[in-house]
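Quiz preparation item.
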């Protein structure tokens, strides 16, 4: 198993280009199951989750060809297996997004329940509620969701849950509704840019979806969808991770390709901490302050601060002057990084869904264990600034969502490398 080794204390300088958004690419790839024509998707990040989903689509009868510069050509078959087994779905929850397209296109689907993961319970009741409202007959048995519908029918659906909207729930229901008979209205739809991106792709395939990016989606069902060519939006979470990496090392980096309009809440919070973001859309210069100001933040559905940046903000605030409170409203148990940050000298305490952070003047390197994708990123950020050597174990999490992270950070001057565990560890891979 590989590890990342970082020698901390080097200021990041230069330019970094942001890759395509993983969380937009994954549901868009599953949307290709809605047609048997060829779809060309550009700017797809080269990350393990994309490779895993390509394998799953292959099992479902699609031909997936990966080309240069994030180009992916997907051609699904009109018929084929409608089963996504446990061994696939457990590796990546986003593969549950094949349920809506399979049901709409092949009239039936059998998809393994994804189960919980280290960031929390992660139920799928909203996905099932939405698909049932469209007329699907759904049973959950033996760890599988079996869904069937000779013809889906449009409906008015409220998709809000205890923590607000569901991103992949909205994606699943929207994809199924695209081929339903009549009009579907989804209230409390997720407003994330990745959902808007999926709706734009579906519209290019011939769907009739309006309201994407707002809590009310209107989908007029069509008889069939066709192939399309589409470019994925830049990854706002990767962009913000590099902004925080720059700031934490007191560096000066230009972030290329990020869309400012997707980062409003993040930029507002960063400015409270003292970080200046200058420049224009697609070319953002990060200027770090001498000291970070402590602040409180709450993660919320878009356009709030994303839960996918909670761990990275926690790492940054562990070096702020004073006490900060970070409240997690989406996944109240997503705090596995706290204990590991504390191994590096941070002073963070968990109180229910809150992380209480007492700022310290510096961190010191140590071996740490990554528990999930964003926790891994937070540990890398802390390692960049910690005195001495930090070794991040279980980095397979990182590879699921960050394209060439050590290469990008090295090009900015970080002392970071990937090494093979000499013991040739046979440790079990734990998926999040
Ligand atoms: N929820 C329910 N019922 C459901 C579905 C969700 O109550 O049927 C709850 C969840 O428990 C949570 C909230 O609704 O409290 C939001 O969960 P959501 O369904 O939006 O999460 P997701 O769709 O499974 C996506 C991202 C996650 C990101 C969350 C929140 C993808 C592939 N995954 O997950 O990304 O954290 O939205 O923004 O888009 C990551 O990239 O590291 C990652 C975990």
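Solution:
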């Amino acid at each position: 198993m590989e590890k990342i080794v970082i020698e901390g204390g080097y200021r990041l300088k230069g330019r970094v280009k942001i890759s395509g958004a993983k969380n937009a690419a994954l549901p868009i790839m599953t949307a290709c199951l809605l047609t048997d024509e060829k779809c060309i998707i550009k700017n797809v990040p080269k990350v393990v989750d994309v490779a895993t989903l390509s394998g799953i689509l292959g099992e479902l009868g699609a031909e997936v060809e990966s080309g240069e510069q994030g180009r992916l050509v997907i051609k699904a078959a009109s018929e084929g297996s409608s089963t996504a087994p446990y061994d696939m779905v457990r590796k990546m929850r986003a593969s549950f997004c094949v349920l809506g397209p399979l049901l709409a296109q092949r009239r039936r689907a059998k998809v393994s329940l994804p189960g919980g993961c280290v960031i929390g319970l992660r139920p799928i009741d909203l996905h099932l509620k939405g698909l049932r409202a469209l007329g699907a007959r759904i049973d959950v048995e033996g760890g599988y969701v079996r869904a069937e519908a000779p013809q889906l029918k449009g409906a008015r659906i409220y998709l809000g849950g205890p923590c607000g909207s569901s991103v992949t729930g909205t994606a699943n229901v929207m994809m199924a509704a695209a081929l339903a008979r009549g009009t579907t209205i989804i209230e409390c739809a997720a407003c994330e840019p990745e959902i808007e991106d999926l709706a734009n792709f579906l519209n290019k395939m011939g769907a009739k979806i309006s309201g994407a990016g707002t809590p009310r989606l209107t989908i007029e069902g069509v008889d069939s969808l066709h192939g399309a060519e589409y470019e994925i939006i830049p990854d706002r979470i990767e962009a913000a991770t590099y902004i925080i990496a720059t700031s934490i090392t007191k560096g000066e980096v230009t972030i290329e390709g990020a869309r400012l309009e997707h980062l409003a809440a993040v930029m507002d919070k960063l400015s409270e901490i003292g970080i200046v973001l200058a420049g224009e859309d697609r070319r953002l210069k990060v200027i770090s302050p001498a000291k970070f100001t402590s602040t409180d933040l709450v993660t919320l559905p878009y356009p709030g601060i994303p839960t996918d940046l909670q761990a990275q903000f926690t790492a940054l605030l562990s070096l702020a002057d004073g006490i900060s409170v970070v409240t997690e409203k989406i996944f109240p148990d997503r705090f596995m990084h706290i204990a590991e940050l504390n191994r590096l000298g941070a002073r963070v305490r968990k109180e229910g869904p809150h992380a209480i952070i007492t700022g310290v003047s510096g961190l010191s390197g140590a071996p740490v264990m990554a528990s999930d994708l964003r926790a891994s990123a937070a540990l890398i950020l802390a390692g960049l600034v910690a005195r001495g050597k930090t070794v991040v174990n279980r980095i397979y999490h990182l590879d699921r969502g960050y394209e060439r992270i050590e290469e990008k950070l090295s090009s900015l001057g970080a002392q970071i490398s990937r090494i093979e565990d000499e013991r040739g560890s046979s440790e079990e891979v734990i998926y999040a």
